[in-house]
Amino acid sequence: EYKGVGRKEPYIYKGRKYKVEGFIKDNSPQAPSNYNDSSSFSRYFSLDAWFKKKLKELPAGVRKTFPYLICPKASKSEKNKGCEELYWEKDNSSFGHHQVDKQRWEWLGKEEQRIYKKTGKKISLRAKGNIHPTVKPLKLGSYLLTIGSQEGDIILDPFGGSGWMAIVAKALKRHYIVFETIKENVKIANSRLLAEKTLWD
């Protein structure tokens, strides 16, 4: 039995288990921590105490909107990088567009009026590039992954969207697992990932 002699953290280790009952003075959500501070990576952590301390270090504009983090949208160039060759036709699906292969077009003479070689029908293109409605800035993702993970960690994104988290994970040398059910989003995410390949591979 080891009772934490020589350590700051009070605990009993017995039978391959840690026992902390009776050592934590106040484990309520309002408690600053066992040590009345914002704690550390190695012991009982109080998020409230951490926020109270760190809030003072933020710029005045950020403190006004806390706890909400407001950041600029992804720039047009960042959003469309890798998606320059994606063209979309308007349809009645829930997504609103489907991809058109531009290699199978023929021009009809009018702006954005084409005939699709595959079906022979006329099409009117409604969008080009990354049409995902809520593309997040890569800088925001970099901030979140830096404070929440380390190199070599596995990042799980169950809602892949435009692929922003996968791109950031790749840049920061994290592994990633991404789920996405909308095929248009999958195409966008893959195109963006391929465009970033030469930067850090």
Automatic annotation (TrEMBL):
Keywords of this entry: Methyltransferase, Transferase
Keyword Transit peptide among UniProt keywords: no
Ranges of residues in domain DNA methylase N-4/N-6: 22-190
InterPro entries: DNA_methylase_N4/N6, RM_Methyltransferase, SAM-dependent_MTases_sf
Pfam families noted in UniProt: N6_N4_Mtase
GO biological process: methylation
GO molecular function term, any single one: N-methyltransferase activity
Secreted as UniProt keyword: no
Protein name according to UniProt: DNA methylase N-4/N-6 domain-containing protein
Annotated organism of origin: marine sediment metagenome
